[in-house]
Amino acid sequence: TGGFGHSWITNSNGDAKFNPAWNAGVSLIYSTKSNFGLGVDVKYSAEGSKVKYSTGVGNGMINTTNTINANYVRVPVKLIYFFGDNNSAVRPKIYAGPSFGFLTGGKTDVTVNEVSVKENTKDMVKNFDFGVTAAAGLNFRLAPHTWLNTDLAFYQGLTDITKDNNSTQHNGNVGVNVGLLIGVGK
Fold it and tell me: In this structure, are strands 171-182 and 115-120 parallel, antiparallel, or unpaired?
């Protein structure tokens, strides 16, 4: 599976800008009933935020851009409901569940009036992130036991990710994911 979207970090001071996010990995779905399934993904997920703000007046204006790149191995566990039956050409679905994120690295770039300072994101962000994910999508039958999987997913972090005790911040992202599912068994 792979996906592209927008990520942010809550409670960031300033004007939030579009921050491209992407993920790639594998997905496993187990289903003994035609309408219910349990899924788990293991994927590399590039997340973070981009915020711009200005302080001062006139010639004393200070323009700052804070770009945080945080890379995770993310493991969402999903309870899935499939609409329709197994013989349908298109099967809508919804899912929700917890998501566990393990920080692998990233760089933070703080630019003040065109002077840039880079830091290791691991110095500012905690190594573990926990939250919830939810999505809606469509599965398109390509062949017997083979589906093109598409969904629009939302993630909201529930744990404070910052090592700074003076603020509380959470990850968030929304994106479109596409994958190929190959059925094994009946």
Answer: unpaired
Location of structure tokens 């997905």: 27
With H, G, I as helix, E, B as strand and everything else as coil, classify residue 121: helix
Rounded CA-CA distance 108/118 in Å is 6
Which residue matches tokens 């760089």? 107
22-27-29-34 Cα dihedral, nearest 10 degrees? 50
Q: 105: alpha, beta or left, given left = phi > 0 and alpha = psi -120 to 50?
A: left
Q: What is the pTM of this model?
A: 0.90
pLDDT tens, 16-26?
A: 999 999 999 99
Please count the other Cβ atoms lying within 10 Å of the Cβ belonging to residue 12: 16
What does the angle CA 100 – CA 103 – CA 104 come to, to the nearest 5 degrees?
A: 130
pLDDT in tens, 54-99: 888 777 888 999 999 999 999 999 999 999 888 889 999 999 999 9
Chain centre distance of CA 49 = 12
pLDDT at 44: 98
Rounded distance, CA 130 to CA 136, Å?
Answer: 21
Question: Which residue has 């790149």 as its token pair?
Answer: 69
